[in-house]
# Entry
Amino acid sequence: MSSDGGNALGDFLRERRTRLDPVVFGLKTERRRTPGLRREEVAQRSNISPTWYTWLEQGRGGAPSKDVLERLASGLMLTEVEREHLFILALGHPPETQYKEHRGITARLQHVLDAMPFTPATVRTATWDVIAWNRAATILLTDYGKLPPEQRNILRLIFCEARVRSAQEDWMAVARYVVASFRADAIRAGASREITRLVAELSAESPEFEKLWRDNDVVGQGDGIKRLHHSDLGTLELEFSHFGIEGRSDLTMTTYYPATRQQALRVQSFIEARIIAEEVSL
# Structure
């Protein structure tokens, strides 16, 4: 069947198969009439029968199971985006979310953060661990670099860190929003095991968290205003926005920008002064 005749799954499998280099897998390259791997080689890598794989490329045999699709994604070395596309073609919907713990971001994404010298920005996971930030966030919000990785969690900071708690103008409203948003994020990401561990730890440390968690509130993320009491700048109103990371659905970038031009100028001057002082002290 042609690519415009309804065999999109077969076309996708065939195209991805031809992109694989036999040399990478230690296979001989002579006597190959077409580029890429042979059907039987992909079948072997995917632990399915060559006949079944051939039928899939030909648009025969019905829809494959989720297990077969996962094997194909592994055998064809698909990216996360390609794996999701494979499931949509075969089953009509994306695969079930499988949460994967991440320890860092790409250099390119860090460049994006650093390109905002006066706008605090962070990147967090679905379990609200902050894994990246820029210098403005370090100066104005929290110096995450001085915290152990396990303490760079927004819920831990809100409920267990006195300095962060006292900086919130309306701590209870912030706490309620954070818990409800976290619940939606983590469940959507399929991070049930990570949720269970974190919730148990926070519940033991904070009665307020335990109560809010039992309320079972869920809210979506949106733009808003965060009011902070800063030790040097006084009360700040920061507009915050959330952005998804292309190809990394488990990550969210959040930016904070002063709500008024006057505050923006004060923040910029303060950050510049801190940077100069730090560079002089080096």
